[in-house]
Q: What sequence folds into this?
């Protein structure tokens, strides 16, 4: 948050305090005074070291921030879904063809690393054309859709500049074809939704009323007159497609020196070129610096901001240019039904500004709170604005200065250049050409930095991947620029001019600006979607939208009118800015409107500021418990991070020194003078500003800062950011989709959570705890009640009242599984996991609304916490939990275990039910991220056969869950058809899918329900069980060729029909039950990743042939023998395997090489086999020793059961690729087998 810090030591002869003055990014000012020079210098050095010396991106506040309870109910990472947003525009694979299609060409970010994974391109253009066209655009940022108008089907597309050559003679047919296809996608315009026309047939337009533009042309650009055209055209005029270059024309021409530039319009005949004349990032940085200079001395004197410097900053001029460009685009698309392609240099700064603001003009949805968030996520975050580089989160020593200590040059001049380089001023053409001349001897981080491009034929010179962020890094000050700040300022101008057309208020924009620099959330920390994914942003940090959406009412505009009617003035779909009415955003600067805008036409005048109370403004946080403190108080708010506590204590400690001379550290509006009617509303406790009051009364300290306090502060900061700072557990990190680089990767060993999720799952179902079934727990039902959950809850409420029924259910949830049950499961049955059926109603009253459970919703108020407690108890015993959404809205099948006795499967036929089911799953996925021991999430239980739209719904839900946590395995029902399900998961688990959620098939195997089962002898059925799962043959065991096919048996039992038992002698039944159970468990352990017996027990008996406990005790259900080993035995087996590993590898590797080299020597890459073997051997050993080594509770040795999806995971993590990747997979699988052979398991 520090923008500039200066230390001012004073000569002793002057008898004045030494001062440290700080200005923050959010225009907060601070001043600290000291009588002791050594102490002052010590504090300055500490602030500098702890700011500039942070060194690692991973030590920013966001990686340690813990959300308060109010934010935990929201997941801001979910709000933007690219497929959903483009579907809103009418583009989806299943929708009508509007001339556009979704392309997955960049799904792994290798095609264009700074672009989003999902691109929208014309339907007529193939991916092959895109592949050959990308080289022609800087950074491979091809023209791609960002907005499609709902009425006229005209588009806004965006790209980077072309590589047209020094003489504009280079061309690319594929690029020309792509642009031509874009400009030919629109359909005839209907009359609906047309903007308002005045009496003369002209569009009602604020800019036109002021004489600044026309509907046909545009606001003035570098090629146009500022006079109003007389030939204004109404909606439906001749189409005139535009290529909009946001740069000044001289900059674009200068870029030709390096082979870049702007389009040669001879090759793009269907369009007109327009230059917007918006200067580069250096000019914008310099402009903001001049604004800061205008506030010089205003934090401790009564002089207001210098109006002359404000005018010279050109800040409002630049805001006007951005708004005019946005108005041009909006008019061309919304009024002249034309297409517009926007670009600047790299296409991520000015392009994002113009693209987003023009959509704000065109689409009322983006003027809602959620819509604006989607717009920011789409056009800024997803399309790769370089937030990290532009914002300078790691600070710089160039932003720190000691006055009168300027050895070797003018330090202040150097600092000014760092903040606002003058390279953007003066003769722009000469400046750019000068930069271009040095191009081949200097590599630029960003083309925006000099408006010159890298013309090398290799990969574009993009900033280093943030996967290297753990290295010591500093801010490149020449890459910083207030680009997103300008976007927010321009949005503020439109909000102020159209106060009833925006759902959100000014306060929302101001707070969003604060969080741009707060580093409290992860939303703005990265430069691209790829970096966000690869750095596990969704797991390691929180979304800033959690903060805003959890406090939604704070940001709502009371004047908002959502009505859209193009026939009523003031309610049109399109709004346009009036650039003659651009004003200073005085609230952002912490000033009154009078101070900032009252003397706009007399720039040399300065108004005295209103009197205000002295105050030191410190760190802002969202914690409610952190607020104003008395002198000397500590600001250790509940849940505050170490950084907040340390920095707040520094503020409080300095504020409590009762220094002889204190500066008023905040602008007038920050301290709110009661005499000022037009002053800014004060920051109240809900905005969480930490502040410390100061006093003018001297005390015994006489301004001295104790060294004890300083040491304590340093200690606290080191604990937050030092080498011992807490790191995010690797097992919990969200994995990302990444390209296969074929480069050796440093792989982490399997984590405890990996062991929980990928070992063989031997266990049982906990039936009738959270989803009641009368035959299992009749004690929970009233006499004569139906058999489903709904009958139980309504019957109990009717019989005993709501409170008693609620208590009965809560007691059942908490006590049905006792501690002795858990001990038996862990130590006797050797369970590794349980499958826990839950219902949508289990999630609480909010999920019961508009469902049959609505009247009983209060009973379930504490159901979800009970689930979490049970999961925690299981984890403590070393037992994982598969969360099974057993009962879904409407029912996934007609059984009573769907929650009701309707007998219908209405989930698949109702969008309302599917939407609610999706909401439930997203909630569970979000919650599961913070729950230890969750091995997976099952989307649906026993979907009815041939369920309508099931796999499409799976696709949708899997994609959305992936945005929350793409590491958690997702289990799907095969709908009683295993073969098609295997084909589906082969595709979902392919290497092409990258680091997506692993998908596991849940199939249920019973021999007790069909007429065919009744005809078979129990021995015949046992033999049949020994050959089950043949559908996997040819689909598993080879991830590279087929993808991963992983199956678990979610339900099975030892139950047969009475007819079957009647075919055997009565005295044989016990042995036949045991034979049947053992046949199943042995087969499932061979071919599946796990199996869960139905069910654990009943409340009136151990369960008979339905009871896991009884059948385990009878020897029918047997755990894998490795789970029964003692930990000493496990350690001994590991030691033996290790001692023999070198010899085993030599034997295995020699055989492999001899076999393959015998016919084609030298054609293979056997190092891949070697690296795979070693990884597989070590992984198997890590799983096997996890309990004995104390990494997870319990005894025994675990084997990798989910072998196919684990193999796929490790291949992706290895980074290897190529046609010989099969050697790595072969080696990996062989290494696992060899360890088990040596360990005797």
A:
């Amino acid at each position: 948050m520090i923008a500039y810090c200066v230390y001012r030591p004073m000569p002793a002869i002057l008898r004045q305090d030494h001062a440290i003055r700080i200005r923050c990014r959010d225009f907060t000012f601070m001043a600290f005074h000291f009588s002791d020079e050594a102490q002052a210098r010590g504090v300055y050095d500490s602030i500098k070291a702890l700011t500039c010396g942070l060194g690692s991106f991973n030590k920013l506040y966001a990686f340690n921030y813990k959300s308060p309870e109010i934010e935990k109910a929201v997941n801001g990472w979910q709000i933007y879904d690219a497929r959903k947003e483009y579907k809103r525009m009418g583009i989806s694979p299943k929708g009508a063809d509007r001339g556009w299609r979704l392309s997955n060409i960049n799904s792994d970010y290798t095609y264009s690393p700074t672009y989003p994974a999902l691109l929208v391109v014309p339907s007529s253009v193939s991916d092959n054309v895109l592949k050959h066209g990308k080289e022609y655009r800087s950074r491979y940022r091809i023209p791609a859709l960002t907005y499609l108008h709902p009425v006229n089907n005209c588009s806004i597309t965006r790209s980077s500049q072309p590589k047209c050559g020094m003489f504009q003679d280079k061309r690319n047919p594929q690029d020309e074809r792509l642009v031509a296809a874009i400009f030919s996608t629109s359909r005839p315009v209907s009359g609906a939704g047309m903007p308002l026309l005045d009496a003369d047939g002209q569009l009602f337009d604020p800019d036109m009323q002021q004489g600044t533009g026309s509907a046909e042309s545009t606001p003035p650009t570098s090629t146009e007159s500022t006079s109003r055209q007389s030939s204004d055209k109404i909606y439906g005029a001749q189409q005139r497609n535009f290529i909009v270059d946001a740069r000044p024309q001289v900059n674009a021409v200068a870029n030709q020196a390096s082979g870049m530039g702007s389009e040669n319009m001879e090759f793009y005949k269907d369009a007109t070129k327009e230059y917007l004349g918006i200067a580069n990032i250096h000019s914008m940085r310099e402009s903001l610096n001049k604004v800061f200079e205008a506030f010089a001395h205003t934090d401790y004197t009564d002089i207001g901001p210098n109006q002359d410097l404000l005018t010279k900053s050109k800040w409002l001029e630049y805001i006007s240019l951005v708004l005019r460009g946005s108005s041009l685009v909006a008019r061309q698309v919304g009024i002249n039904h034309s297409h517009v392609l926007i670009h600047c240099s790299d296409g991520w700064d000015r392009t994002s500004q113009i693209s987003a603001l023009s959509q704000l003009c065109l689409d009322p949805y983006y003027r809602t709170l959620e819509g604006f968030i989607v717009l920011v996520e789409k056009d800024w975050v997803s399309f790769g604005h370089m937030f990290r580089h532009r914002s300078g989160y790691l600070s710089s020593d160039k932003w720190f200065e000691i006055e009168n200590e300027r050895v070797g040059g003018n330090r202040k001049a150097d600092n000014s250049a760092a903040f606002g380089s003058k390279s953007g001023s003066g003769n722009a053409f000469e400046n750019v050409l000068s930069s271009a001349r040095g191009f081949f001897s200097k590599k630029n981080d960003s083309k925006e930095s000099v408006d010159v491009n890298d013309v090398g034929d290799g990969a574009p010179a993009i900033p280093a991947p943030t996967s290297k962020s753990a290295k010591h890094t500093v801010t490149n000050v020449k890459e910083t620029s207030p680009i997103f700040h300008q976007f927010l300022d321009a949005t503020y101008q439109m909000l102020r001019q159209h106060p009833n057309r925006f759902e959100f208020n000014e306060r929302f924009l101001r707070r969003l600006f604060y969080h741009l620099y707060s580093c409290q959330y992860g939303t703005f920390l990265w430069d691209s979607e790829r970096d966000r994914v690869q750095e596990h942003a969704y797991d390691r940090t929180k979304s800033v939208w959690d903060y805003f959406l959890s406090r939604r009412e704070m940001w709502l505009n009371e004047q908002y009118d959502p009505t859209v009617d193009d026939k009523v003035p003031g309610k049109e779909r399109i709004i346009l800015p009036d650039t003659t009415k651009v004003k200073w955003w005085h609230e952002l600067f912490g000033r009154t409107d009078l101070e900032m805008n009252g003397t706009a036409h007399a720039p040399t005048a300065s108004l005295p500021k209103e009197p205000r109370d002295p105050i030191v403004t410190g760190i802002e946080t969202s914690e409610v418990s952190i607020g104003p403190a008395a002198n000397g108080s500590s600001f250790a708010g509940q849940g505050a991070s170490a950084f907040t506590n340390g920095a707040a204590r520094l503020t409080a400690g300095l504020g409590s020194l009762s220094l002889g001379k204190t500066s008023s550290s905040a602008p007038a509006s920050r301290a709110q003078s009661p005499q000022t009617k037009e002053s800014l509303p004060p920051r109240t406790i809900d905005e969480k500003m930490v502040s410390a009051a100061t006093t003018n009364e001297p005390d015994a300290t006489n301004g001295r800062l104790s060294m004890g306090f300083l040491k304590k502060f340093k200690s606290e900061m080191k604990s937050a950011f030092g080498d011992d700072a807490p790191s995010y557990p690797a097992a919990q990190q969200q994995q990302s989709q990444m390209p296969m680089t074929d480069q050796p990767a440093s792989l982490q060993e399997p984590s405890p959570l990996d062991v929980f999720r990928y070992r063989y799952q031997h266990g049982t179902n906990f039936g009738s705890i959270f989803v009641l079934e009368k035959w299992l727990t009749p004690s929970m039902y009233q006499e004569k009640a139906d058999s489903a959950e709904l009958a139980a809850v309504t019957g109990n409420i009717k019989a005993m009242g709501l409170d008693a029924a609620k208590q009965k259910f809560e007691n059942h949830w908490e006590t049905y599984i006792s501690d002795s049950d858990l001990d038996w499961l862990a130590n006797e049955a050797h369970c590794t996991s349980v499958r826990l059926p839950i219902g949508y109603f289990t999630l609480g009253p909010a999920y019961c609304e508009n469902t049959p459970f609505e009247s009983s919703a209060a009973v379930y108020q504490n159901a979800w916490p009970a689930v979490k407690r049970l999961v925690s108890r299981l984890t403590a015993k070393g037992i994982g939990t598969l969360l099974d959404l057993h009962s879904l809205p409407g029912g996934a099948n007609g059984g009573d275990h769907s929650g009701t006795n309707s007998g219908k499967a209405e989930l698949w036929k109702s969008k309302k039910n599917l939407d609610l089911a999706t909401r439930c799953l997203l909630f569970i996925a979000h919650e599961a991220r913070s729950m230890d021991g969750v091995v997976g999430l099952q989307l649906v239980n026993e979907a009815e056969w041939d369920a309508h739209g099931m796999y499409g719904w799976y696709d949708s839900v899997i994609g959305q869950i992936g945005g929350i946590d793409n590491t958690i395995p997702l289990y799907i029902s095969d709908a009683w058809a295993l073969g098609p399900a295997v084909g589906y998961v082969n595709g979902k688990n392919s290497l092409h899918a990258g680091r997506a959620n692993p998908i596991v098939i849940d199939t249920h195997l019973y021999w007790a329900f069909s007429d065919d089962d009744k005809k078979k002898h129990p021995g015949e059925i046992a033999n049949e069980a020994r050959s089950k799962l043949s559908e996997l043959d040819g689909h598993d065991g080879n991830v590279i060729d087929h993808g991963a096919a992983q199956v678990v048996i979610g339900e099975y039992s030892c139950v047969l029909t009475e007819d079957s038992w009647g075919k055997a002698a009565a005295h044989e039944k016990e042995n036949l039950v045991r034979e049947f159970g053992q046949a199943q468990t042995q087969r499932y352990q061979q071919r599946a990743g796990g199996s869960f017996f139905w069910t654990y027990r009943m409340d009136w008996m151990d369960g008979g042939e339905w009871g896991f406990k009884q059948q385990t005790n009878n020897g029918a259900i047997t755990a894998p023998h490795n789970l029964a080993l003692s930990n000493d035995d496990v350690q001994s087996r590991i030691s033996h395997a290790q001692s023999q590993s070198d010899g085993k590898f030599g034997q295995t590797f020699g055989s492999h090489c001899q076999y393959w080299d015998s016919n084609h020597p030298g054609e293979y890459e056997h190092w891949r086999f070697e690296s795979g073997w070693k990884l597989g051997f070590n992984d198997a050993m890590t799983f096997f020793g996890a309990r004995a080594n104390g990494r997870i509770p319990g005894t025994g040795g675990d084997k990798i059961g989910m072998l196919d999806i684990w193999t796929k995971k490790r291949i992706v993590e290895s980074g290897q690729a190529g046609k010989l990747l099969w050697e790595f997979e072969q080696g990996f699988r062989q290494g696992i087998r060899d360890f088990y052979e040596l360990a005797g398991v």
